[in-house]
Amino acid sequence: MSKLAARFFTIALAFLLVTVAMIGPSFASPGRSEDKDPAKTAAAASAAKQAKEKAAAQTETNVEITVTAPRVEIPLKKNPAATTVVETPILRTMPRTIAIDEVMKLVPGVKVDNQADGERVHLSIRGEGILTERGTRGIKTLVDGIPLNDPSGYVSDFYDVDWATVRRLEVLRGPAAAFYGSGSSGGIINILTRDGGPDPVSASASLVRGAYGLKKGQAEIGGTTGILNYSLTGSMLTGAGYRDQSAYRGDNARGKFIFTVSPKVKITAIAGWTDFYNENPEGLNLAWFSADPETLRRLANPDSYTFNEYQKTGRATGALVSSIELAKNLDLAVTAYYRNTRYTESVPSSVIHRDFDTPGLMAQVNNRGSWGQFTNHLTAGLDYAWQAFDETKYPNLGGAVEGTDLLSDQTLTQTGAGVFVLDRLEIGSHWGVSASARYDRITNSLDDHLQAGGTDLSGDVAYKRATGRLGLTWNPVADFGLYASWGTGFLPPGTEELVNNPYALGGYNTQLVAATSSGEEVGARGAVGKSLSYDVALFYLATDNDFGRYRITTRPLETFYGNVGSTHRYGLETSLAWYPLEALTLRAAYTYSHFKYVSVETLTGDTYAGTWLPNCPQHQLFTDAEYRVTSALTAGAALEYMGAWYIDATNRIFPNGYGRTDPYALVHVRLGYKFEFNGMPLELALAGRNIFNVLYYGFTEPDPDGNSYQPAATAEWTLSLRIGLK
């Protein structure tokens, strides 16, 4: 803990020194900004912001949207990357607000597997991270500027996010390691939550009751007083899950405090707390469904009953985010954060305990200069993250009862450091060129306290790489633009890959090497009049040393990882929004994915060529229609289609049908009614998901025993009441 305290103190001190140095003159010499009433100024700014958001919601064909996913503010039309923005009007249609799969339906190129119909999900972009057993690999995820990734680029979960509080989501797809390092090898997810309102105090709440024991209560209070805008939110969630052994519960609390010290200085303080528990039903094989598929599919894997498989996560987060204008065209952004996580998992082989401490610092300087028809935007900065965790494992004797013999006792220390330069040149009003370069070094150090059999498995392993990205945009007219880009990715083994060591009990899997990728894309985005907007991208992606999962006969209950080969991937991603009538909105997102191995080694001795990447359907389609019947009543319906996919890299189909899923199509409906009661705004919503009871699989994994299928829920109805939302 002394090393941790020293590192965190250094990070916090550096942040405070930089911030105080910048804001000191503002306190000492208020200047003309003090001539205005801060409360009135903040209220006026908030009112202007609300008017702007309302106008954007009414005319979503406007492509003059600013995104921040690529580290800097940039108009969407000038961003040379496939990027989707999900705004509040779409977010308000979420019936359950408990998991990220709800907000990703209209984002092409993304696949989210909800493994137990709760918050436990697995997410990939263009197939990157598709073979991770849980969580997200190689996709940078930020919440209000704070990364969820650990130094290796791994995101264990999204439990810190209460999706009822999200006001905006930005998803940048494709290799973007030059922006955030290994964590953004496959793309970026930028999540922005609501601020407090313009009034001194405002409050709202929501209640959700749904199928399979779903209950959620959420409340928030916020406002603006003087230089402070604040938002406090909290929620409680429980659910029985669709299958046996899939119950979950979670509590979430978060506070965001925005201090607009002066027109040049803004500091945001964030504190969060998460407590989440979920049972793990594991996958089943097709033999379970031969007699009575509708009943047996709700059972858990026998191992789940026997060993009481579960995961429990407790986490506290604190962060400071500052934005400081140093000069007219020069500003500084600094983020310091700290997370403490307590994690317990029961698996058939053991009960695992991990205690994490994760501090980090991000800093960048942005400069803007103009010369005639040229405008240059230059950014340079550094990212530093450090993580230490103690891990112990004890035998699972059954029912998650722990034996006394230690299977693992070790301390792991990880660091991730990166320096980067981003440059974007605007040439007149039509052309833009961008270039990015970055260098990263990720180190892992392990101290083996167990030393079983007298063997010390302590050791170090490091991964380093330079990455780059180039982009070009052309916007000949206001509502049409083309873009092209090339980028590289760098994905070192993450925490889960490293510590699951097939060669010994404890220690690192030192045989792993970093996966790398490079890809190109071309795209078009724009609008036709005021009723139609579109976005289309074609991409190609080549990867080397992709990771795969396997098991060994001597330890059949454990999952291990190895570098299995290389892939060639290409595809089409497109989205569309159409407003044929003032009261009618039609949206669609379609993805075509052609992901194949050039060569793949199964790590059990077999080698294949030209097989399909597992868990990657060729076709994904989501269409949504919403009709405003009256000013108070809204009706909506959606169609979701998912093509078939293979279970593992062999693409073998066995006589019982194991090896490939069937395609499926689901229909969802919803009704929303807004009214007032004693002057209080209320919104009542009824939503039905998979209303025709289609039987399908929500997730599959390459299990050698054939226990690969995790059945998804049949029809689900959800009733929600929102109080005081504006």
Question: How many individual helices?
Answer: 7
**What gross morphology would you assign?**
globular
Mean pLDDT: 88
Radius of gyration: 25 Å
Enumerate the spans where pLDDT stays under 50 for 5 or more consecutive residues: 1-63
- Secondary-structure-derived class: mainly beta
Question: How much of the sequence is in beta strands?
Answer: over 45%
How much helix, percentage-wise, in residues? under 10%
Tally of strands? 36
Q: What's the main sheet like?
A: 22 strands, antiparallel, barrel
Give the end-to-end Cα distance, rounded to a whole number of Å: 46 Å
Give structural notes.
- The protein has 726 residues and is mainly beta.
- 10% of the residues lie in helices and 55% in strands.
- The chain is built from seven helices and 36 strands.
- The strands form six sheets. It has a 22-stranded antiparallel beta barrel.
- The longest helix is centred in the N-terminal third of the chain and has 27 residues, at 2-28.
- The two termini are 46 Å apart.
- The model is unreliable at 1-63 (pLDDT under 50).
